[in-house]
Amino acid sequence: MGDGSEQAERQPARAARTLEIMQIGLHVPVFAWPGGPDALADHLTTVARTAEQAGFGQLTVMDHFFALAPEDGYKLPMLEAYTTLGFIAGVTSSIRLGVQVTGVTYRHPGILIKSMTTLNVLSKGRAFFGIGAAWFEKEHHAFGVEFPPLKERFERLEETLQLAHQAFKGDSSPFRGKYYQLEEPLLSPMPVSRPRPRIQVGGSGERKTLKLVAKYADACHIFASDPATNQHKLDVLREHCQSVGRNFDEIDIVGGLRADVAQDGSNVDEVIQAIGALGEIGFDMVTLALPDVYNLKALELFGERVIPAVAPINARQTVSAG
After folding, report:
1. What is the pLDDT of residues 5-63, one digit of tens each?
2. 144/278 Cα distance (integer angstroms)
3. Which phi and psi angles does 249 have, rounded to 5°?
4. What are the tens digits of pLDDT across the range 168-203?
5. Domain locations in the chain?
6. Can you point out the beta strands (E) in the chain?
7. How far apart are CA 226 and CA 38, in angstroms?
8. Other C-beta atoms within 10 Å of 9: how many?
9. What pLDDT is recorded for position 318?
10. 98-156, pLDDT tens digit by residue?
11. Is the pLDDT at 230 greater than 70, yes or no?
12. What are the distances in angstroms from CA 41 to CA 2, 37, 96, 126, 314?
């Protein structure tokens, strides 16, 4: 394999869009649940199985080693992402699994891609590869992980995406990048997903992140703010797709949404309306972190009322692989 610049000029093989209807994803960022560590495995099992039965399209966790909470809240329980997903894969059978945004700095890319491939194999193709440029400086320093400047993190992200495309297609020839040099990036066993695992890039930066989405990703994850901003981000992504010769409709648009659901269901219609507004401008999936998810009531409410209501909203047509 040539250097990074040569790889960037290649048009990598594309996976097909997978979301024919609008879907809801469950994001689990918090593990400060009742019962402490002894109860975590049981809580996580019931949450994952209930989400699957309710019809959630995917289940994601954060790739962080500290909790994202103010002041001393970072000391709250936080499970390591890929170990957690391996556990969830073992107690579920159909729900798609992934890290919402793996920080590119946390693991050497060859090891990261091997870990993700293992998860893909053992989950029978349900695991996807979600990645971003990383940002949480405090936990880098806490665990002795290098935290390069932003420009370098994006360069490392692009090299990792190039390596993923190479390795996922079974090419184990040497990889020669600016930051990473791999003599034989062999994946054995290969991923189960065909033509390769879904690649999702997280973030909505207009000059760098969305350009990387257009060049390398099957999906993007952006935080869904106000409708005008959402529409603008999609327009920018369209422009990047045009500039690299990519069909915008090949990319699944996934949005993170904050929506507190009342346990009695009193605000379900408002939640449906908020999700529907995203579907109408082109979002294929909305991911939500539901409060106190361990008590299962919100998950069941989504399965009964929200998921059936929003499924028909997205009218984008599924396209075949490029």
Report:
1. 444 344 445 555 555 678 999 999 999 999 999 999 999 999 999 999 999 999 999 99
2. 39
3. -75, -5
4. 999 999 999 999 999 999 999 999 999 999 999 999
5. 203-286
6. 23-28, 58-61, 96-99, 102-103, 129-132, 175-176, 181-182, 199-202, 219-223, 252-257, 285-288
7. 40
8. 7
9. 36
10. 999 999 999 999 999 999 999 999 999 999 999 999 999 999 999 999 999 999 999 99
11. yes
12. 45, 8, 19, 20, 35
Backbone angles phi, psi at 22, to 5 degrees: -70, 135
Question: Phi and psi dihedrals of 303, rounded to 5?
Answer: -65, -35
Helix H or strand E segment including 153: helix 150-168
Backbone angles phi, psi at 51, to 5 degrees: -60, -40
**Residue from 267, 252, 261, 245 nearest 54 by CA:** 261
At what angle are helices 227-244 and 209-216 packed, to 10 degrees? 50
Q: What's the sign of the alpha-carbon dihedral 280, 282, 285, 286?
A: negative
Predicted pLDDT of residue 5: 40
Query: Pick from 195, 166, 168, 169: which is nearest to 182 by CA?
Result: 166
Cα–Cα distance between 24 and 278 in angstroms, integer? Answer: 12
Q: Are strands 175-176 and 181-182 parallel, antiparallel or unpaired?
A: antiparallel
Residue type, 38: D
